[in-house]
């Protein structure tokens, strides 16, 4: 409905995840009214991501060098490995400041309905890393949903015979939450996972 | 928390309206995994909008030439003028296919709380157009909220003495809506604006 360039931009923005036609239009008009330098910076950032960012050859986290920042950091313990689905999970765990080991990014979770099996994930690469013998403990930090649980169960079965300690992140009530609003599965897990005080 | 380029992109995306930190991260990872050609097209569309799009010198709609598509279209009636707040309102009205006249885009609405008075809008430009004598009817299609109503009332007072017919878009129940869910002001307007059948 708009003329050329602005409709092109609305169309392109509408292809992004979570951006509907109304948001695309809103963003396009924002761009139209913003400072040319700001728009230039955004366009540049988009292109630089494609040029510079690749995946760490060790853990498959996002990186701008052969290895990511965490794999390059010699102060991080190499004997604990945390397995996550996506690079954003690495960031979420790093934010807690609780973990000083290294990561392994699977690139997804097992999902038979969508035809994603272990061969589509970086499971073989994980086994190679574990085969090196340096890893003492493996923390399975896949998402607490069906696919994540299936992936964790699969990996636990595979890794336990190697004599490596395998653990899974605790499920339970979110801190700051309200007991009465917790769903029954979460509340059930909080019960079965109760700790002595 | 991310390295260089991807964090830059998340920061830039987070400045767009309606894009929070989580969406910015989601879009950044989408960009990272999409085809370089798609990303190049989006970056190009952003920059082209700033280069090509300007405002029509007659009606202040968005345009890629001296005048917008509607002002250039000689089949459109020049004796009915529809006043709207923003270019997106032009698109919304064009979609109805009900209007064959021309537009005047004010660039906003009167809002004393934010210090926006008639001088900040294209009111003077509207009066110049109306002074030409070709316009027979003025349709006030500002938003049906406090600012839009104030703007419409102000313009009506200004234009009526010129002998031009002034009308306002009908307020009432949205088509396909449910009477019981209508707010009292809308329902009240629907009553006062009832039509003989």
From TrEMBL, chains A, B:
**Residues in Toprim domain copies:** 79-174
The name under which this protein is listed is Recombination protein RecR
Q: Does the keyword DNA repair apply?
A: yes
Q: What's the domain of life for this entry?
A: Bacteria
Q: Does the keyword DNA damage apply?
A: yes
Which terms in the Gene Ontology molecular function aspect does this entry carry?
A: DNA binding; zinc ion binding
The entry's function note states: May play a role in DNA repair. It seems to be involved in an RecBC-independent recombinational process of DNA repair. It may act with RecF and RecO.
Q: What are the record keywords, sorted? A: DNA damage, DNA recombination, DNA repair, Metal-binding, Zinc, Zinc-finger
The biological process GO terms on file are:
DNA recombination; DNA repair
Report C4-type zinc finger ranges. 56-71
Gene responsible for this protein? recR
What is stated as this protein's family in its record? Belongs to the RecR family.
Q: Which Pfam families match?
A: RecR_C (PF21175), RecR_HhH (PF21176), RecR_ZnF (PF02132), Toprim_4 (PF13662)
Which InterPro entries does the record match to this protein? DNA_Rcmb_RecR, Rcmb_RecR, Rcmb_RecR_Znf, TOPRIM_dom, TOPRIM_RecR
